[in-house]
TrEMBL record:
This is ABC transporter ATP-binding protein. One of its GO terms (molecular function) is ATP binding. The keyword DNA-binding does not apply. Keywords: ATP-binding, Cell membrane, Ion transport, Iron, Iron transport, Membrane, Nucleotide-binding, Transport. It holds the Pfam family ABC_tran. CDD domains: ABC_Iron-Siderophores_B12_Hemin. The keyword Ubl conjugation does not apply. It is found in: Cell membrane. Residues 1-236 form the ABC transporter domain. It comes from the Bacteria.
């Protein structure tokens, strides 16, 4: 997947301007950057849920705008930042909606759909919640159910906007481990994350953004440096090897570790 010369705006407010970036095939790409830098906006454009003011998004070399909606949905699944469930829908029914791209006039619900839903529920550990109403769940449980719906779509490309929102640290790591497992199975993942150390631990490819522009991209060890953290986040820190994984670990300086910009 590749974006070329993207300019993205909400009404008259330009968020991203003339941005070009590539997502390597079968990578686990993570987008990092401060609030308001355009991370989620870029993800929406990659998913074709936001039309660029100029530029284009290519999927396997083909303009994504040239594809029909169901063609895109069979190839890209999106977990948005704050999804809203329909009223009075059960967990099982919501996850089953991930199979919509595979339905048609000549193909209704099938055993393969049932298997896909079951596997997605199992993978996110929400099988026991299948008959519960989504509205009755905690924020963390709902987040896992939405991820299950995206998994049930069975796409090769999965876009995740802050997938660990509302989760405690243990469940955050479970979700990230699940994402890593999906990547190891050959899927391409693109995620927006706020936790720099989780991004550095799990990503194979990092994209750092600031002010609507890409300031660095590449392997975590090349992108995560003390100098770049100061530039992008205004964060005074040390970057040391993670004792568990050897990946870059950001250790903020004392007293908050913020750099005041003049």
């Amino acid at each position: 997947m590749r974006a070329e010369g993207l300019t993205l705006a909400y009404d008259k407010t330009v968020v991203v301007e003339d941005l070009t970036v590539s997502v390597p095939r079968e990578s686990f790409t993570v987008i990092i950057g401060p609030n308001g830098c355009g991370k989620s906006t870029l993800l929406r454009a990659l998913a074709r849920t936001m039309a660029p003011r100029s530029g284009r998004v290519l999927l396997d070399g083909e303009p994504i705008t040239a594809l029909r909606t169901k063609q895109v949905a069979k190839r890209i699944a999106l977990l948005p930042q704050s999804p809203i469930a329909p009223e009075a829908i059960t967990v099982g029914d919501l996850v089953a909606r991930g199979r919509y791209p595979h339905q048609g006039l000549l193909r209704q619900w099938s055993p393969a759909d049932e298997v896909a839903v079951r596997d997605a529920l199992d993978a996110t550990e929400v099988t026991s919640l299948r008959e519960r109403l989504v509205s009755e769940l905690s924020g963390g449980q709902r987040q896992r159910v939405w991820l299950a719906m995206a998994l049930a779509q069975q796409t090769d490309l999965l876009l995740l906007d802050e997938p660990t929102t509302f989760l405690d640290i243990a469940h955050q790591l479970e979700v990230m481990d699940l994402c890593a497992h999906l990547h190891e199975q050959g899927r391409t993942l693109v995620a927006v994350l706020h936790d720099i150390n989780q991004a550095a631990r799990y990503a194979t490819h990092l994209i750092a953004m600031k002010g609507g522009a890409v300031v660095a991209e590449g392997a975590p060890q090349d992108v995560i440096t003390a100098e770049r953290m100061a530039d992008v986040f205004g964060l005074a820190c040390r970057v040391v090897p993670d004792p568990e994984t050897g990946t870059p670990l950001v250790v903020p300086a004392r007293r908050g570790g913020h750099i005041r910009h003049a």
